[in-house]
Design goal:
The structure is a single chain. The radius of gyration is 57 Å and the shape is rod-shaped. By secondary structure, the chain is of the alpha+beta class. The protein has helices at about 1-75, 80-100, 105-135, 135-225, 240-300, 300-330, 340-355, 375-390, 420-425, 445-455, and strands at about 335-340, 360-365, 370, 395-405, 410-415, 455-460, 470-475. It has ten helices and seven strands. It starts with a helix and ends in a 7-residue tail after the last strand. The longest helix is centred in the middle third of the chain and has 88 residues, at about 135-225. The chain has a five-stranded mixed sheet with strand order 2-4-5-7-6, covered by helices on one side. A two-stranded antiparallel sheet has the order 1-3. Helix 1 (about 1-75) packs antiparallel against helix 4 (about 135-225) and helix 3 runs antiparallel to helix 4. The protein folds into three domains: about 1-200, Four Helix Bundle (Hemerythrin (Met), subunit A), CATH 1.20.120.1730; about 260-330; about 335-475, Heat Shock Protein 90, CATH 3.30.565.
Amino acid sequence: MKRILEGTSRRIFAAFAVLVLLFAAASTFAFAGMKEVHEGLHNVRAQEEQVRTVLELASAARDVYAHVAHTIILGNSSHRALFAAARDHALQLAAQVQEEQRDPAASALAGSIATSLEDLDEGFRDRLLPAVESHDHARIEAEHAVEQALVADVQQRVDQIARLTLARIGDFEQHASAIQHATVRWTLLCLAGAPFAAIAMGIYLGRSIARPVARLSAGAALIAKGDLSTRIELGGNDEFAQLARQFNDMTTSLQADQAMLLQSERLAGVGRLAAGVAHEINNPLTVILGYVRLLRRDARGRLATDLAAVEEEAIRCQEIVEGLLDLSRPLASLGEPVELREVVEAVTSRLRDAGRLSGVAVRIDGRGTVSGNAERLRQVALNLIKNAAEAAGPRGEVSVEIDSQGDAVVMRIIDSGPGLTDEQRRRLFEPFFTTKAAGTGLGLAVSRAIAHAHGGEIEAANASPRGALFTLRLPAMPGRAS
């Protein structure tokens, strides 16, 4: 039952786990999208700061050029210090832009801007200022053109960096929009699929738990009403199928126990009947047999034939009475050691001497010692071997195998006859059931009763490839079990 509950718990847990996983997936998609968008926004802010730094660099480059222009206009070096300060600020911004840029192209552009600013500084200090101080107008115009070209180149590269940064911002905005739509789509898909998953899990639980439980309950109700033929058929190999098989095994066992109880009641009834009337019947039968045998001494012709028939029927009645007495007679001395091989050999010799084997070959293998009543066990062996010889027929074979198995001794009697039908196997040990014209139907019933009294059992089956197999199982003699 614990395993069944554990299996059921696993199914229920799996069903709810699917729903939880769906909601977890939806939450995961939502949080992952939000996280990516948040990181992207942080990146956009950083890139916006880079754009501001780039614009400041453009303004600083213009300031540097303004001091160059003022120097030319004023015709002196009064803006030297101001030029140096503007130059240092522009170089600092160029280094900052180069450090902040993750794009190799933008970083290279920032590095070239720093180089152009250094060239601008070198041209201003080494060539333009001396020309201004010496009032060399031709040289001033030439150097001014060089300085102006350098500033224009710086402005152009600053614009390129700004465009690259703005393009990255635009790409991310598109990416963020795509992430947002994908997150919403997958989240809605998971949430929309949750009801369908819940329905599917409900159907799954209904089929795997509720339906088997209902069938088990219905079968148990029929069994409770006494219908032991009920069989609960559940496919698969799960806990419910195992429980159904256990129910079926239980009902089969109950049927067998009920059949044994019924047989025991029949035997008890027969025993009580035998105890009440056996002596009353046996005494008249003895008298009848005595007179019949006296009359047969002098009888001739038809009278002798009739007296022989009367004697035969009287003997049959006497055998029936003896069988009834055997069913009711208690066993004595169950503790003596009995060697089954010796019992079988003695019985076989007796049957052969009486001409009851009719050319049947009997083979005996093995040995084993049991604790019991030798005379009653000899009666069991006699019934089983005689029945096997009659089933095998003339020139047939009977094999008797004795084997010690743990705390039991098993004797198998196998004949070469036609075997047993299902009807015969079902009723074989019932009192008065017989397939023989002259049988009493008490031999096997008495044999099983003797086996039960010894704590053993007799079972009947069909042998392979043909014939019948009777198995007698008895407890081994203490101290002699193998």
